[in-house]
Amino acid sequence: MNWQKCREFQKKIRDNLVLKGGDFDYRNLLAVDISFKNNKAFVAAVIYNIKSNCVEKKYTLIKKNKIKYVPTFLAFREVPYILRIVNKIQRNYDIILCDGHGIMHPYRAGLATHLGYLLNMPSVGVAKSYLCGNFDKPGSDYFSHENVYDDTGNLLGYALTNRKNTKPVFVSPGYKISFEKSLKLIKLVSGKYKVPEPIHVADKITKKLRDNND
């Protein structure tokens, strides 16, 4: 993997970033998650109905993996496998939700931004771990949140308490959606878990695939 070329592609995405979207009229979202073990990638995608808060379809994929994880380059490890599973799915979804960052990334090009850019679709990232930005700790109450800013004061997204008395998750727009709508989406599809329900379901699937392929 030529990491310098990867960095240049991230800069290209950053320079062509589109965040403002249309009305919030999303019905179905595609949630994706990946687990890795023993040089294999275990991929899950679920179609989730936002209006009724239920999973409508599930898709899985297992592929050999030779790409190592390098900080700030996560998308280059995961996107190839996600695109493979996306190509199996009829496009009956309006937005993509990723277990990873959107523009809350040093080059404004996290996993969700990559996918949105490549598929030309609205996308949102929600990550369990901090990558960059400055923020105050949000309150412990459900849906308490604080803005996350870069070093020059530009908004990157939100630190959100998605479950009482837990560490926050990090929400940011990926592509073709505003900050406010990104946060609204995460609140709509969140339930009793720290991560949104669609991501929780996809994560359980990948872990089951991984554990069944020892």
3D architecture notes:
Pfam families: Endonuclease_5. InterPro entries: Endonuclease-V (IPR007581). The record marks 69 as: Interaction with target DNA. By secondary structure, the protein is α+β, with helices and mostly antiparallel strands. It has one domain (21-130, 171-211): 2-Layer Sandwich (archaeoglobus fulgidus dsm 4304 fold). 28% of the residues lie in helices and 28% in strands. It has helices spanning 3-15, 74-86, 111-119, 179-188, 197-211, and strands spanning 28-37, 40-49, 54-64, 95-99, 123-127, 145-149, 155-160, 169-175. An eight-stranded mixed beta sheet has the order 3-2-1-4-5-8-7-6, sandwiched between helices. 41% of the residues are buried.
In short:
This protein is an alpha+beta fold and 214 residues long.
- Identify the CATH architecture: 2-Layer Sandwich
Order of helices and strands: HEEEHEHEEEEHH
**What's the CATH H-level superfamily name?**
archaeoglobus fulgidus dsm 4304 superfamily
What is the CA-atom radius of gyration, in angstroms? Answer: 16 Å
Summed up, the helix count is: 5
Profile the largest sheet.
Answer: 8 strands, mixed
Low-confidence stretches: none
CATH topology: archaeoglobus fulgidus dsm 4304 fold
Give the neighbour order of strands across the main sheet: 3-2-1-4-5-8-7-6
